[in-house]
Amino acid sequence: MRIVASRPPARPGAGRPPVTPSAQARLTLALAGAKAAGTASRMLGVGGGTSFPGIVARRIDPRVLQKAAAASDARTVVVTGSNGKTTTCRMLAVLAQAAGLRVNQNRSGSNLLQGVISAAVRGTDLRGRMDAQLLLLEVDEATVRLVASEVDLDTLLITNIFRDQLDRFGELYAMARKLEEVIEALPASATVVLNGDDPLVASLAPQARARRLYYGIRRAPGGPGGSAGSQVPEHAADTIRCVRCQHLLDYRAVYLSHLGDYHCPACGNTRPRLDVAVTAVRPSPEAGSEITVATPAGIFPLRVPLPGMHNVYNAAAALAGEIALSLPRPLPPGEARDAMAGLRPAFGRLEEIQAGDRRVVLAFVKNPTAYNATLREVLARPGRKHVLAAHSNTVVDGEDFAWLWDVDLEQLVPQLASLVVSGTRAEEVWLRFKYAGARPEATQVLPGRPAALDAALTATPPDEPLYIFAGYTPMRELRGIMQRRGWVRPSWEE
């Protein structure tokens, strides 16, 4: 069996006007400045050059991304959505590399515009020529329209839409409409890859010209994640009503939050036919999951080395993205399996860290679905749970913490041995744990991240792990502390 696509995508830059000498000179200056900024930030230890170079480049030449993309023959794939972007990109990158493609990506997860520009800059020479055949970009949901206005997308992959940073993104339908506008502007030569199990994502821009590929899970009884095979969405699920008539959806199976095999009993709206379908999910003796995948070219087995049903979805998304790429050398199933086998969790995604004589499991959690999925994986592990919970209300984290009340902390509390809460909203986080039943005598409230990490490690015996549940900014801060102590490599080297 070989994975093939029905037609090749158009090359980026087709139809773009040639760059004039003066515009080329400005582009060269912007690229030189950005590369210098990246080198300086790494040498000074103030970052890995994942976003600052983009700021410098855009200040010198506001059209730097457009020019670099226009000068390149690389195919451009953008991955966006609420959850799973970083892992899906990593999976798609190893599949593309196994097929012989040179890949340029923002691997560190810096997914705002400056991070996207930094990735493009890093992979180009001073004339704007990119030494890659695939430009693979993880892009923040609110930033997609900015990137799409400057780069010709060959493929747009949308993982899911969950309630996330409502004060920044707005409610789900507002975000969906913004993504629809991007899809509607894509040419017929482009491909949009959609999670067919997400009722809102599957419904996006039905009249768009771009080719559509749907992926999802087709009734996989049992398996990891706790919700596989259920017929009732989780209590914190978001899209539970029909996007056409607003009647409550019926589910033949629910696999994660509101993702599953749905239909509307009122208007007949139903899940679309899946082009890439996971037909079986089994726990792997080597950790992760063994899955069976049906594709347009046949059915084959694949091991997903990362735990949880959310990573099964990420793998299905990556396989659908591979099909959309029309790879020059179709990847046989055995090579796909080998390519995926070496995957490690992206930093902060249940990342295992040896912290001196202690063991830390670092989990990035930013919305109810991500938090609950992570909790299920943690609670399935043996032993008592020592926890550091850190959340802040920065712009990138979101200022509204009401979503914490939809996290199933009540399931964690019976196994909770010690708790430290931290971040700029430590007291509010503690209030949520208190109402979940956490014992005050086993809890410390320490807003400062270094003090919180030290206290949590002290409360954790050497033979038991410390679980850190953290939002984006505290996660980066805590990992930065561990980096300075020599426990982890910089995130941009992972």
Give a structural overview.
- By secondary structure, this protein is of the alpha/beta class.
- The chain has two domains: 74-112 and 128-341, UDP-N-acetylmuramoyl-L-alanine:D-glutamate ligase, CATH 3.40.1190; 349-493, Mur ligase, C-terminal domain (Protein-Tyrosine Phosphatase, Chain A, Alpha-Beta Complex).
- Helix content is 34%, strand content 20%.
- The protein has 16 helices and 17 strands.
- The strands form three sheets. The chain has a nine-stranded mixed sheet with strand order 2-3-1-4-5-6-9-10-11, with helices on both faces.
- The two termini are 32 Å apart.
- Mean pLDDT is 88; it is low at 1-15 and 221-228.
The CATH level-2 architecture of the largest domain is identified as: 3-Layer(aba) Sandwich
Name the CATH superfamily classification of the largest domain: Mur-like, catalytic domain
Shape: globular
Strand composition percent: 15-25%
Task: Give the structure's gist in a few sentences.
The chain is of the alpha/beta class and 494 residues long. The protein has 16 helices and 17 strands. It has 2 domains: 74-112 and 128-341, Mur-like, catalytic domain (UDP-N-acetylmuramoyl-L-alanine:D-glutamate ligase); 349-493, Mur ligase, C-terminal domain (Protein-Tyrosine Phosphatase, Chain A, Alpha-Beta Complex), CATH 3.90.190.
